[in-house]
Amino acid sequence: MHIFFGHIAPAGNWTRAAPGPTVAVKREELAMLRIWGRANSSNVMKVLWLCEELGIAFERIDAGGAFGRTREPDYLAKNPNALVPTIEEPDGFTLWESNAILRYLARSRAPGHPIYPTELKLAADCDRWMDWQLGTLTAPMTTIFFTHVRIPEPDRDYPAAEKARAAAETLWAMLDAHLTGRPFITGDHLTLADIALGIYVHRWFVLPIQRAEMPALRAWYDRLLARPGCAKHASGPLT
Fold first, then answer.
1. Hey, CA dihedral for 121, 124, 128, 129, is it positive or negative?
2. Could you tell me where the DSSP H helices lie in the chain?
3. CA 109 to each of CA 14, 26, 55, 60, 211: distance values in angstroms, whole numbers, following the listed order
4. 1: exposed, middle or buried (Cβ count in 10 Å: 0-12, 13-18, 19+)
């Protein structure tokens, strides 16, 4: 079980946390958000990174992978998919699906924040790239990742991994072209789309694979690495 504290400070109903450093804490957040999931899960990393960006206090509970728990009745009641992450609010509300969680936390904790734009077309652009991550990029990146990190050497299917690598390279080239002249995916500000895709671009650049030169993609990756949330939760060794 891991507990982290942060702060955000838009207008609203606030109190001061004591003792210790003076930190603005919203009263309803004194009962913390729970995040169920292991820290080395890409989808959990998204949520942890966002919490760092917005200063959301949370308690993380290890679940999934070697930690098990996801097939236990109490967890299945929260998430019948038996996957991570799942978030749990103090009032009992639970939510699964990582990108849905990102949108919910942005709306509930920091409405109007540029991390999830309010302008209709910018929001649609953000949503488009988040959906592209889930529906298009995840499959080849998962094959590459599992081949080189999770599957024992004797069981690895390298031809399948190379096919996935080539497919992923084509997809990353699309994003490289899109990022030319832009600091972040939707423009000047980091959004949920950058977080959703940033988890995977870290894997792309550190996996032991061949990669075409993509200068805009690399520059974007370097900008993400400079952000505390990415550095803390999404840039470590692959496990």
1. positive
2. 42-54, 73-78, 98-109, 120-132, 138-145, 158-179, 192-206, 215-225, 228-233
3. 13, 9, 9, 17, 38
4. exposed
Give the whole-angstrom CA distance, residue 67 versus residue 75.
13
**pLDDT tens for each residue of 157-176:** 999 999 999 999 999 999 99
The pLDDT score that the predictor gives to residue 12 is 30
Interstrand relation of 86-88 and 33-36 (parallel, antiparallel or unpaired): antiparallel
Residue 205 near residue 168 (C-beta atoms within 8 A) = no
Q: Tokens 């309803």 correspond to what residue?
A: 28
Listing DSSP states for 176-234 in one string gives HHHHTT-SBTTBSS--HHHHHHHHHHHHHHHSSS-----HHHHHHHHHHHTSHHHHHHS
Q: What are phi and psi of 94, to 5 degrees?
A: -125, 155
Overall pTM > 0.70: yes
Among 55, 187, 191, which residue's Cα sits nearest to residue 115? 191
Which residue has tokens 């603005």? 24
